[in-house]
């Protein structure tokens, strides 16, 4: 569901990342005639920026090597002493099993045990991984420690150093941003070109599709949550969804309790039942347990008030003596209805997302267990279609969160959004059914007839991807097509519909234009098919 452009990321295995690092080292070593050990030190010193290393070596090779600690330092006046004992523990080689080890650029000798302690203490821990160079253990020495020094140490230290360098390439890389796929048990790594990411919202929220099938947001590492922002997605998953689901459960439990007719229990009112309210007459605290089914509450002081808005009974009486509903009650019940519908729609869409995941997984397993006569191109076409269905289902699910956060007080936008959701769902259902039929035909028929089907599936895949690209774009732009204007419900001779802006008389409770079945539906001009997607 992206425009036809070069992908700024690559999905790699750990071995492929290691090979990529090795090639970078070999290139610097071969072009500038330096050892692989020196190339590693230089690249790590410049955070694996080959262009920066090349520029430094071309401009002044000796200066570049000296700054990174790859040139001999001033001889130590106590150098003769370091030839016979370790400068840390002051033991001679006869007192431990091994030899004294120093870098090629200084005369500071240390035993292997002291080298091991030095590396573990200052460089190998995760919090020290931002170090750009490993230096000699001597406090006053800047000589660089590279593979040519590490290879003199025991094998465990050599293995630890290799892991350290690979981790430095992954986490301290200035050019590539490399992260592990957040899916459980996935071993793939994602390499993202930082030069393509100028900290813009669009690139930071890039939709990444891993080879394992997991789709996630590059910026926050949550599952792909377009069209909502990372903050909205985080708030929904870790706060609002839990609260709304809990309130919904409490509402379903209380629904079995006998209540007076025409009294609607809302999530907001349920939350109030477990707290205490305050009488507006005497400010005395009142326990609302068991009283939420009555419109008005009588306090011990004799004052009566409506417990939802904390206003007295007198304020709720009209001149005729009849009671009127307050705006607070309308707002509470409307918000409760919206929140309940968003949660229910989210859960229903989640079921479809899981089914799409299951369909893709079943197809992959069927290809492995029972190889068919389908060509690799056929399998790619079907897999791409199944993956697109999953992405589209996920977008529709997250559009429910968009509904919750961005259309709370704009009725016209909510109606238009739900129209777009229904239309998008219909398109995905139709494509999923077509794909299922043609997939079954393809697994049982490899004739020329299936070649025609492949073309049909490819075209519909592209069309659906284009449609959802514009669907996401329309939501991210704030549904600007809908012109919403606020009006005072009790001012003037007419009230104006916030969907079509038609002026209705106060005798009409519903808009006469929007309720007209002969009225033309909204045009989907912004959802026309765009450029061909990949």
Describe it:
This protein is mostly helical and 534 residues long. 48% of the residues lie in helices and 7% in strands. The chain contains 15 helices and 12 strands. It has helices at 14-32, 36-45, 50-59, 61-67, 79-82, 112-122, 147-150, 155-171, 201-204, 230-254, 267-273, 327-369, 376-406, 411-444, 448-476, and strands spanning 9-12, 176-180, 189-193, 207-209, 215-217, 276-278, 285-287, 296-298, 304-306, 311-312, 494-496, 503-505. The strands form 5 sheets. The protein has a 3-stranded antiparallel β-sheet. The chain has a 3-stranded antiparallel β-sheet with strand order 8-9-10, with no helix packed on it. A two-stranded antiparallel ribbon has the order 4-5. A hairpin with a 6-residue loop joins β6 (276-278) and β7 (285-287). α1 crosses α2 (36-45) and α12 runs antiparallel to α13 (376-406). The radius of gyration is 34 Å and the shape is extended. The N and C termini lie close together (8 Å). Mean pLDDT is 75; it is low at 198-204, 253-275, 329-334, 483-491 and 517-534. Its EC number is 2.3.2.31. Belongs to the RBR family. Ariadne subfamily.
Oligomer: single chain
SS strand fraction: 5-15%
Helix content: 40-55%
Q: Categorize the overall geometry.
A: extended
Structural class: mainly alpha
Order of helices and strands: EHHHHHHHHEEHEEHHEEEEEHHHHEE
**Spatial order of the strands in the main sheet?**
1-3-2
Rg: 34 Å
Poorly predicted regions are 198-204, 253-275, 329-334, 483-491, 517-534
Largest sheet: 3 strands, antiparallel
- How far apart lie the N and C ends? 8 Å
Provide the residue-averaged pLDDT: 75
How many strand segments? 12
- DSSP helix count? 15
Keywords: Metal-binding, Repeat, Transferase, Ubl conjugation pathway, Zinc, Zinc-finger
Catalytic activity: [E2 ubiquitin-conjugating enzyme]-S-ubiquitinyl-L-cysteine + [acceptor protein]-L-lysine = [E2 ubiquitin-conjugating enzyme]-L-cysteine + [acceptor protein]-N(6)-ubiquitinyl-L-lysine
Organism: Camelina sativa
Protein name: RBR-type E3 ubiquitin transferase
């Amino acid at each position: 569901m992206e425009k036809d452009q070069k992908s700024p990321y690559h999905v790699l295995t750990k071995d492929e990342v290691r090979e990529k690092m090795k090639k970078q080292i070999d290139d610097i070593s071969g072009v500038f005639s330096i050892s692989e050990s020196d190339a590693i030190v230089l690249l790590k010193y410049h955070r694996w920026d080959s262009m920066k290393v090349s520029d430094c070596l071309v401009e002044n090779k000796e200066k570049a090597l000296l700054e990174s600690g790859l040139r001999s330092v001033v001889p130590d006046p106590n150098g003769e002493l370091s030839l016979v004992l370790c400068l840390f523990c002051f033991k001679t080689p006869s007192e431990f099993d091994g030899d004294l080890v120093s870098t090629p650029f200084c005369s500071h000798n240390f035993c292997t045990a002291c080298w091991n302690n030095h590396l573990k203490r200052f460089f190998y821990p995760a919090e020290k991984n931002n170090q750009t160079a490993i230096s000699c253990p001597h406090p006053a020495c800047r000589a660089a420690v590279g593979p040519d020094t590490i290879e003199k140490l025991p094998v465990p230290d050599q293995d630890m150093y290799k892991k350290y360098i690979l981790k430095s390439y992954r986490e301290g890389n200035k050019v590539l941003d490399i992260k592990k796929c957040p899916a459980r048990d996935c071993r793939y790594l994602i390499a993202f070109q930082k030069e393509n990411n100028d900290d813009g919202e669009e690139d930071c929220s890039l939709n990444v599709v891993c080879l394992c099938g997991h789709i996630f947001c590059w910026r926050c590492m949550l599952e792909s949550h377009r069209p909502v922002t990372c903050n909205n997605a985080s708030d929904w998953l870790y706060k609002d969804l839990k609260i709304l689901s809990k309130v919904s459960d409490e509402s379903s439990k209380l629904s079995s309790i006998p209540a007076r007719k025409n009294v609607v229990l809302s999530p907001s009112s349920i939350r109030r039942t477990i707290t205490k309210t305050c009488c507006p007459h005497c400010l005395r605290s009142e326990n609302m347990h068991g009283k939420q089914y009555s419109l008005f509450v009588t306090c011990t002081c004799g004052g009566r008030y409506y417990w939802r808005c904390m206003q007295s009974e007198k304020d709720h009486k009209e001149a005729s003596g009849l009671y009127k509903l307050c705006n607070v009650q309308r707002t509470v019940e409307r918000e409760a209805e919206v929140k309940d519908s968003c949660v229910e729609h989210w859960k229903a869409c989640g079921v479809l997302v899981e089914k799409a995941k299951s369909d893709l997984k079943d197809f992959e397993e069927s290809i492995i267990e029972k190889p068919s006569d389908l060509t690799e191109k056929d399998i790619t076409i079907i897999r791409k279609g199944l993956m697109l269905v999953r992405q589209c289902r996920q977008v529709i699910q997250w559009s429910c969160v968009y509904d919750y956060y961005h259309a709370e007080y704009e009725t016209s936008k909510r109606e238009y959004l739900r129209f777009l959701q229904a239309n998008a769902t219909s398109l995905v259902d139709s494509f999923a059914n077509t794909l299922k039929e043609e997939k079954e035909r393809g697994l049982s028929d490899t004739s020329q007839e299936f070649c025609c089907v492949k073309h049909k599936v490819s075209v519909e895949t592209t069309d659906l991807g284009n449609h959802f690209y514009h669907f996401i774009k329309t939501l991210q732009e704030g549904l600007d097509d809908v012109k919403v204007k606020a009006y005072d419900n009790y001012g003037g001779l007419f009230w104006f519909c916030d969907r079509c802006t038609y002026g209705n008389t106060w005798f009409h409770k519903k808009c006469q234009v929007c309720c007209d079945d002969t009225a033309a539906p909204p045009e989907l001009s912004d959802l026309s098919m765009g450029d061909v997607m990949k």
